[in-house]
């Protein structure tokens, strides 16, 4: 019998996960664990839409702004740290909230990642040379051919993740997507997944508006202050890499902002592809009513009750 419950709030970027997570945390008088890998970094508040100080004050949050961009932090380390934090929180709470759109990081918490081989130095050097000579597009092409399923969900602009996946495939002769798939039975808590969804056009409009709001809040200055770190993995991400190109004189500002919007929409499309494959997510429509929210609470309580029978 699994007595503790983890409510995981998922959905594409810009859909409203933060607000729902806070509402649920307040209802269950509990705390929130973030699995948004970009919000770990304290220097990237605006471009990652980290919860505001007011939102953070509404419910205790963990793994928000807890690292510097200069620190390397692996998904394996996050899995270990998040499970340790959950064990601590379950000492005082029967239910805890997990929230974030980083698909693999949610998976690391609710299912776990298989033991994968350490990086092979020769493979890493070979792949680095390929990228230096032919660009990240060549790595994308290699991964797509080797493992189309993982290619469909990975952040294809994050070269470290591409290198890691290809390296593991080369070492094991098995698809990376298959190797990171394990059963939820490996966890001693009950998982209830809640999603927020919206019509594609409405979602894309929300994403575009959110980028405009980020710019109004000072994203340009935030990125300018991080320019000396632009070679770091944490900053090789949407909202930052585009503006670095503006600072380098490659793009004008309007084009850079339009690229942020385009790449954010592309990332949302990948998230939707990932979540669509799951059959255990209970969905709310964006802009849900109070009645919808009450029904959601009833659903969650029913799921909790079922695990106690």
UniProtKB/TrEMBL annotation:
Binding site for substrate: 13-18
Cofactor field: Mg(2+)
Domain of life: Bacteria
Record field: catalytic activity: adenosine(37) in tRNA + dimethylallyl diphosphate = N(6)-dimethylallyladenosine(37) in tRNA + diphosphate
Region (Interaction with substrate tRNA): 36-39
GO biological process, one term: tRNA modification
Presence of keyword Transferase: yes
Record-annotated site: Interaction with substrate tRNA: 102
Positions that bind ATP: 11-18
Gene Ontology terms, MF aspect: ATP binding; tRNA dimethylallyltransferase activity
HAMAP family hit by this protein: IPP_trans (MF_00185)
Function field: Catalyzes the transfer of a dimethylallyl group onto the adenine at position 37 in tRNAs that read codons beginning with uridine, leading to the formation of N6-(dimethylallyl)adenosine (i(6)A).
Name recorded for this polypeptide: tRNA dimethylallyltransferase
Gene: miaA
